[in-house]
Amino acid sequence: MEAASKRKQVLDMLDIILAQRPTLKLECGEDVAVLNGVTASLLSHCPSGVAIEVASLDGASPQWVGAEASCFFRVNEDPPHAGAHMLTFTSRICSVNCQPNGVVMLVLALPESIGRVQRRRCVRVDVTQEKVPSLKLWPELPSGVAVARKQPLLDTEDSVNTGIRVNNISATGLSLKIAEDLMRQALPQQNKGQRYSLFFTALSSPNCPVTHFWVNAILQNVIENTQESEVCLGFEFIAEGELDERKRIVWQPLKCDEVSGLGKFIFKWNLDNFRDKPLVEC
């Protein structure tokens, strides 16, 4: 009964989208990167699927079938002056058809739910160790240094550092929660404005390979939680890096104030957090 009710909510919302004709923004994984950020419109829907058309593509590929696609759109409340909601749904591409006029039609499986979501990629999301499996922190490493020769202050893979975890993260920064005892040992003094270098890995889903990130960051805040006997450190990313052929770190300025490639993980994790939230009634 609950599944039938949820399905009806989805179909009712699709009726609203069809009536209001909002612009849909598409986001897809790296395997269909050409669809990221393109606009589309809803053509029709039925109990088994949703048809959308995209006019801004030069062509289409049958290899898109099976890929995950997320649609973002804004719907107005009734009456319209009462406001609007930014909503999203995620589905799989079932078929691809290129029309004679060049318009591409995509048929998506009927989404399981439609929910409210914040689309900007700099939103912070709470994460578990499964999403960020490892993290290391050093005092700021200069460009050209051999990282292997530098002992990190904190390392989540070190059994001694079991009192550290990533609390939340965005494409522009992250926060760590560290046990007070570990703080006294590893970071006895913390001052706003201090600079650190971090290495961490990210995992979008269990069956995907991990991605490595190197960042320089400024400590922006220190919040003590005496009840939990832990300290929260907030960092802002200021540079991104990679290891050269000699395993030496090379830093580069951030592009658009974000770490390259991290936004897609934030987007995916944020979407996962909101996917099971109830449909917003308009």
Q: In brief, what are we looking at here?
A:
The chain is mainly beta and 282 residues long. The protein is 14% helix and 41% strand. Strands 8, 9, 10, 11, 12, 13, 14, 15 and 16 form a nine-stranded antiparallel β-sheet that branches. A six-stranded antiparallel barrel has the order 1-2-3-6-5-4.
Please tell me about this protein's structure.
The structure is a single chain. The chain has 282 residues and is mostly beta strands. The protein folds into two domains: 118 residues, Electron Transport, Fmn-binding Protein, Chain A (Pnp Oxidase, Chain A); 136 residues, Thrombin, subunit H, CATH 2.40.10. Helix content is 14%, strand content 41%. It has three helices and 16 strands. The strands form two sheets. Strands 8, 9, 10, 11, 12, 13, 14, 15 and 16 form a nine-stranded antiparallel sheet that branches. A six-stranded antiparallel β-barrel has the order 1-2-3-6-5-4. The radius of gyration is 22 Å and the shape is elongated. It starts with a helix and ends in a 7-residue tail after the last helix. The C terminus is likely disordered.
